[in-house]
Amino acid sequence: MRVTVVGAGIVGLAAAYTLVGRGVGVRCLDVGEPMGARSAGDTRIFRVAHGTPELVAEARRASELWDDWSMTAGRTLVGGERAKVSGPRVPAWAAAMSAAGAIHRVVDGVLHDPAGGVLDLVATREFLTAAVRPERLEVTAIDPDGTVHTADGGADHPDAVVVAAGAGTPALVAPLGVDVPAELEHHARFTFAGPADQPCHLDARADGDLASTDQHRTRVGHWAVGGHLPDTDTAWELGADEVARRSREAVVDHVRRLLPHLDPTPVDELRCTPMRGLGDGVHRARAGAVHVVWGDNLAKLAPRIGEVVAADVVGDTPVGGGAADHAP
């Protein structure tokens, strides 16, 4: 069997890696560098804590698979920092953890997730690209029969296609009758110097212009802080520079007032372009031999998504379908 995977972000690479492990011939194509768009940066937060029992269960399976990846890579890909969640979503998230049988505790209104930690995306990228060897080549179109057309004039004729192309997915799959949300927004997170020996933290309490914040250690021992602004401040039409300026202003103010252990002058920033309004959860569709997967906040679930998509491609998807069937 031959499969072409379109997209070399962490989800595309995870699907390709799992297919290679099943003995499938895989070609992985991306217009840019591997994990260079939505998967960019050196770290992300891993957490089992989610808002539904189904997503908690999928994250628990993802944790097992991250351990498998770490063993194969010979490197620790998920740190032991743990994670905590605060704010109004704690009761529902704690109930979801209990329903899924996930270890956790709530102390003084804060949910503690002992399985949480920091994903080392640099090591993950090295591990996956060594196994998959993606090609830097733009895919311009995909035909209903699965023919993949590339910018160099080539045409690939695999047995199946997996499309995990991030922002490029809607245009590629719309001609196949697959409706993927095309509205994007800008987002930025910022890195600060200071102590970084704390759990990852998701805080749903509003602070000024920020509806919520997320914080975690970076790979180099600094502290990353991101915040969610109102939709009017993240609109695509504003441009990345303006959204980053507004985000920086709000996050720096947050750090200055509430995180005094950090130097409030950012030392780095990371920009990305999530799909608007999706939040946690994974979505997939199929048109003939073409399998499509999309969503946001997917890095933590990547090994599980790869497992489910690969099983679907080779025809042995388990009953219930796995991670890609669950949305918030």
TrEMBL record:
The keyword Oxidoreductase applies. Gene3D superfamilies: D-Amino Acid Oxidase, subunit A, domain 2, FAD/NAD(P)-binding domain. InterPro entries: FAD-dep_OxRdtase, FAD/NAD-bd_sf, MTOX. Residues 2-310 form the FAD dependent oxidoreductase domain. Keywords: FAD, Flavoprotein, Oxidoreductase. It holds the Pfam family DAO. Its cofactor is FAD. This is FAD-dependent oxidoreductase.
